Amino acid sequence: MLDDRAKAANVAVLSGCSSFPALSFAALDALQPGFAAIATVEAGIAPSPRVKMALNVIRAVSSYAGKPIALLRGGKRVQGHGLIDGIDMTIAPPGAVPLKRRHFLLADAPDLHLLPEALPGLQSVFTGAGTEPQALQRLLGLLARLARMNMLSSLLPLAPLFHRASSLFAFGAHRGGMFVRATGKAPDGTDIQRGWHLIAEGDDGPFIPAMASEALIRRRLSGTRLPPGARSAAGMLTLADFEPLFRRFAIASGIRETSGDGTGTPLYRRMLGSAWNDLPQAVAELHDSIVSQVFKGRAKVERGRNPLARIVAALIGFPAEGADVPVSVRFDRKAGGELWTRSFAGKSFRSLQSAGVGTDENLLVETFGPFRILIALVPEEGHLHLVIRGWRFLGIPLPLFLAPGGETYEEERDGAFRFHVEIASPMTGLIVRYTGWLRPAEN
User: Between helices 55-64 and 159-168, what is the axis angle to 10°?
Assistant: First the structure.
């Protein structure tokens, strides 16, 4: 009826000019090249805990909490339950510091209904929201289960309370994000898993839902007229329409390919995804190999004076202090990882680097003896920054604020690979700092 009236009036009427489905479908379109068939699509939004949600949004979520939601699962139409079904996901655009891993609870988004029609052969679809603090989300999920069991008729009367609680318990990093992930088969039958990730810093996230409308208006102003009629905005835009709008804000986005075991791709290239192209040539060359190789150079080494810092340095085997120390680094490429053997003036220490899995997904994991350091790889202004995002001792997670930190980066200068490694701790001060250059060793 509305479609007929829109066509009669020669106007286009679009619904869903928001993150779902306009942006989510644009992201899925960018993921599709190389797929012979897509089997599953998962998508979710992770709002910053410090962004105030409008009461009408919380009322909408409360209205379907614990209630049946029709979705596709295993190729069959089934009923999920709002804020009960869920998945875990780490949002990590290539080259950006990832969000902390979150649990996403089923949300009633248009994609649940539109995707099965758009992708014949689709087996499963999921759309969700992952809010912080996660403890409050778990409480909300518990209340949703009570509603499912008819112990509560609805969570809608509690919406004003939830709205107030979201302001009172605004804890966590002031960052939000979104993802779309697809799995399926390539033409040769091999498995493909690919994801589009976005992170918005600070208060920039709430601008994203309005960007689809702006992109459509800009398209119209450029002279492109949409066909008349009433329909969904799904498929009306591409990521290329959004990217100029993203650049006005502190927004990072990109695509990660996570197919296979990665043994045929160098570790850093695999971890960085599309951000690999942002690396300086000398930095890329050092990391772009799947065979063993040796680099040699010179370094300046400084050691901390704190007795505890000296104990830690000795435990790990960090080098002694020196102003012009010969250094070599041997990279032994192993299945899924790299063994780094660093030798300073003939004294060596080792670490194993690998790609994180599970809760450490999309982070580089470096193991020094009993310590495991979780690192985000962030190319920025000609540097590859290594940003500490967590650490463990004998597998036990330790507080991030106590993690060994300091400025650590790689760069190219005068055509050579240069490194700046600083390891310090609030408990010890400086442990070690070594800076210098490396070149491929002559055979």
Answer: 120
Type of residue found at 380: E
163, 53 contact by CB (below 8 A): yes
> Rounded to whole angstroms, how far apart are CA atoms 68 and 106?
10
| Token pair for 413 | 């200068």
**Whose CA is closest to 239, among 18, 35, 42, 30?**
30
**202: DSSP letter:** G
- Per-residue pLDDT tens over the stretch 228-266: 999 999 999 999 999 999 999 999 999 998 765 556 788
Residues of the chain with CATH 2.40.128.20: 267-440
Count of beta carbons in the 10 Å neighbourhood of residue 225: 9
Contact 131, 61 (CB under 8 A): no
Domain with CATH 3.30.360.10 in the chain: 2-257
Residue 302, both tokens: 């400084």
- End-to-end, the C-alpha distance of the chain in Å comes to 76
pLDDT per residue as tens digits for the range 323-377 = 999 999 999 987 768 999 999 988 888 899 999 988 898 999 999 888 899 999 9
Q: What is the DSSP secondary-structure string of 305-328?
A: -SHHHHHHHHHHTPPPPEEEEEEE
Task: Tell the CATH superfamily of the 2-257 domain.
Answer: Dihydrodipicolinate Reductase; domain 2 (3.30.360.10)
- pLDDT tens per residue, range 67-111: 999 999 999 999 999 999 999 999 999 999 999 999 999 999 999
Please, are residues 352 and 375 in contact by the beta-carbon 8 Å criterion?
A: no
Q: What is the largest CA-CA distance in the chain?
A: 83
Tokens read off for 201 = 């810093």
Question: How far apart are the C-alpha atoms of 421 and 383, rounded to whole Å?
Answer: 13
| 231 DSSP β-pair partners | 14
Count Cα neighbours of 259 within 13 Å in the Cβ-side half-sphere. Answer: 16
Give the Cα separation of 391 and 388 in Å (integer). 8
Q: Measure the CA–CA gap between 405 and 386, rounded to whole angstroms.
A: 10
pLDDT for 381 beyond 60: yes
Give this prediction's pTM: 0.88
Separation between Cα atoms, residue 130 and residue 88, nearest integer Å: 9
The CATH number of 267-440 is 2.40.128.20
Nearest CA among 405, 431, 161, 237 for reference residue 315: 431
